[in-house]
Amino acid sequence: MAFENIRHNVAKILEEIPESVELVAAAKTRTPEEIQEAIAAGVGTIGENYVQEAARAFGIIGRDVKWHFIGHLQKNKVKKAVEVFDLIETVDSASIAEEIDKRSRAINKIMPVLIEVNSGREPQKHGVFPEDVRKLVEAVAVLPNIKIKGLMTMGPFSGNPEDARPYFVETRKTFGRIKALGLCNVEMDTLSMGMTNSYHVAIEEGANVIRVGTKIFGER
Ligand SMILES: *Cc1c(COP(=O)(O)O)cnc(C)c1O
Q1: What is the mean pLDDT of residues 79-93?
Q2: How far is the CA of 181 from the centre of ligand 1 (A)?
Q3: Are 123 and 150 in contact (CB under 8 A)?
Q4: How far does residue 195's CA lie from ligand 1's centre (Å)?
Q5: What CATH number has the domain spanning 3-11+21-217?
Q6: Where are the alpha helices (DSSP H) in 107-150?
Q7: Which pTM value belongs to this model?
């Protein structure tokens, strides 16, 4: 997409959303130049699905922005991931959390993470079912080099944003229940929900992080 359009798209989204909501530019398949254009227009956080792609963009852009990992994390990529990312949004098993903890300890870092919720209970999707979130949170909370900051969900894809609402509601309720437990080492201040076609609904339902790709950069 032409650079002027990226600027225009970002400006429009930033105008629409409350200041308390963090816009993450979901950058998969985009060039570092496109990402830099979004940053120039006011994006403060880049979301990356692939560690390798992220490391390349990070090498060019650096720490002027925050970097969120929003893809599915493989164990052999954790070492690199904990070096690059400010937040890993997609923790969905105790074993990946243990690896993140171990690799973070090696570089003296406390890694902020979100737990990914499979709110649509879709077999092909990553994330834990809402009823299993508490158990995973309790297992991850004991790891000294991880800090749980909240929850992330995708929800089932649909052309109609209203279809996403029940999944966002359920994730927000799960978020509230975990927060109310007041667990040690669990902060619960971040709720990442909503993409290009659903971020308005997500914000209405309590998201304070939205992840937008297509509406910033155009169709992939
Ligand atoms: C690609 C992606 C997005 C953004 O999707 P769009 O529909 O292009 O806005 C958000 N979250 C995750 C996890 C993604 O992989």
Answers
A1: 98
A2: 30
A3: no
A4: 6
A5: 3.20.20.10
A6: 133-141
A7: 0.98
